[in-house]
Amino acid sequence: MADYRAPVKDMMFVINELARLDRIMGLPGYEEATPDLVEAVLEEASQLAAEVIGPVNTIGDAKATRVEDGQVFVASEFKAAYQQFLQGGWSGVSHSVEAGGQGLPYVVGLAVEEMWQAASLAWSLCPLLTEGAARAIETHGSEALKSLVLEKMVTGEWTGTMNLTESQAGSDLAAIRTQAIPDGDGFRISGQKIFITYGDHDMTDNVIHLVLARTPDTAPGVKGLTLFAVPKRLINPDGSVGDRNNVRAVSVEHKLGIHGSPTCVLDFDNALGYVVGEISRGIICMFTMMNHARISVGLEGVAISERAYQQAVDYAKERVQGRAPGHDGPVTIIQHADVRRMLLTMKAHIEAMRAIAYLTATHLDEAYRQPDAEARSLAQARLELMTPIVKGWCTEIGQILTSIGLQVHGGMGYVEETGAAQHLRDARITTIYEGTTGIQAADLVGRKILHDGGVALRSLIAEMRQADDELAEHGDQLSVIRIALREGVDDLTAATDWLFENHERDADIPGAVSNSFLMLIGTLAGGWQMARAAAAAARRIATGDADKSFYEAKIVTARFYAEQIMPVACSYRKAIESGSETVMALSQEQF
């Protein structure tokens, strides 16, 4: 398996040119996040990713996890990597200084997180869940709870989990049965949760579980749920770890991929827990964690695709097979046009996905830090619109790209020794985590488009149209990209108009067209960012930038996206305008 090399140059390009770090630096508290500082942070993180985390990827896949007497054990190499991660102070990069973090912008933390995910997706899930749990406690927890657990979670000394799913409930949180009974200053939690990522492990002394449960005499459905922080081990008054709480791991799942990550069944038997937020407002508190997690899981689609792409490129440059026009004798397979098509498909999508994810992260930074209330509100609306796109589109494309990476290897990709198959296996969970693609699409169309009358979406469309003037400045050089973007925006505009003209006449339309809507917006948003990247690269070349080759490649990759990927937007529009009639036409017996 090829070693992982963090694409720091491309990350910095996206952060500076597309995510506009200069604008983020203008937000209160982020003034010191200069390009030089951000690049230094990314370079340092890339070393840890390449030298420490990357090498444990195949080890965790081979060793997996085990349960002994209610305790989960991970590969010892995972533990060693986590200790180096802690010693380097890498947990809490974008958490507030007051909570024990480094106070960098969220977009910088996301770039660092991409490195951990690409180096070893299974390993990275532990800090990912911890960060989200810590944010939920920081946002909604009482001062007493924060003083008890927050700093140790932000620094990574303790880890965190998200406990929603139960065997009878699945994604239907209204069916949750776990109970919480008042007991002095806390509650006693009883019930069983399934599919709990890093629900137990031996890398830290304590795990803080965020658990959705029902208190007595509350409303049925999701309105009756409250969020609780339930420690694996009880916490003494001085903050030290005490006896084992009544939480134990019943088993770990045997999965298709991410074998090194323990996915646990957890049993809570009268376990002590503390309220996070207010009684019966658990869903609101949990969504603080879940929305961060959805962006992070979308980023997993970028990260694992990047890892698969690097390995495919390395293999294509080394594998000698066949002949190609213009070459004498056998050639490496990267000389074959179809192999180049596959590699460019991977490269173009990855750059587009990275740009969308990072840009969405800046909306989160602005929603938290922007002093102007109206600007904060606009950033929040854009963040909410784009979150299901990042999560759904990036992970769906990740399935395709990791499969292409295997295809580049030919038969060698199908055997485990090359490592290409692991990327495909590991990536498969990403479309399921934190709500399936269908759930993301339903949220996008129902809550984010129809609910506000399309205001947020039409604002995005208007901003996309503004790129036309920027592209026009570069004449014929970017004309293909300009035309493709304009046509794609027209397709989304027409699809949006059709949705609003038709959804009230047929209640099945939103559900029937939601997936195509998500994929249309994702494809177009990717093309929009690739167009912006091409314009930025053209400006750099015009000013005589020394790294001309890098910027020329940016323009070629953007043109490939415009020619080979953007036409798909039109097919999604046609699928949307077909409505729901055929989708709903068969009886159950006809399936």
Describe the secondary structure blueprint for this structure.
Elements: H1 8-18, H2 21-24, H3 35-53, H4 57-63, E1 66-68, E2 71-73, H5 76-87, H6 106-119, H7 121-140, H8 143-154, E3 159-163, E4 179-183, E5 186-197, E6 207-214, E7 225-231, E8 233-235, E9 241-244, E10 247-252, E11 263-276, H9 282-318, H10 337-369, H11 373-409, H12 420-427, H13 437-450, H14 455-472, H15 479-502, H16 509-542, H17 548-565, H18 568-577
Parallel strand pairs: 3-6
Antiparallel strand pairs: 1-2, 4-5, 5-11, 6-7, 7-11, 8-9, 10-11
Helix pairs in contact: 1-10, 3-6, 6-7, 6-9, 6-10, 7-8, 7-9, 9-10, 9-11, 9-12, 10-11, 10-16, 10-17, 11-12, 11-13, 11-16, 13-16, 14-15, 14-16, 15-16, 15-17, 15-18, 16-17, 16-18
Features:
single chain, alpha+beta, Butyryl-CoA Dehydrogenase, subunit A, domain 2, 7-stranded mixed beta sheet
How would you portray this structure in words?
Helix content is 56%, strand content 12%. The protein has 591 residues and is α+β, with helices and mostly antiparallel strands. Among the domains are: 8-140, Butyryl-Coa Dehydrogenase, subunit A, domain 1; 158-281, Butyryl-CoA Dehydrogenase, subunit A, domain 2, CATH 2.40.110.20; 436-584. A hairpin with a 2-residue loop joins β1 (66-68) and β2. The longest helix is centred in the middle third of the chain and has 37 residues, at 282-318. It is globular and about 75 Å long. The relative contact order is 0.09. The mean pLDDT is 96.
Poorly predicted tracts of residues? none
From the alpha carbons, calculate the radius of gyration and give it in angstroms: 24 Å
- Overall structural class, as computed from helix and strand content, comes to alpha+beta
Helix content: 55-70%
Mean pLDDT over the residues: 96
How many strands, which pairing sense, and closed or not: the largest β-sheet? 7 strands, mixed
Instruction: Count up the helices.
Output: 18
> Any idea what the shape is?
globular
Number of strands: 11
The CA-CA distance between the termini, in Å, is: 42 Å
The H/E string reads HHHHEEHHHHEEEEEEEEEHHHHHHHHHH
User: What fraction strand?
Assistant: 5-15%
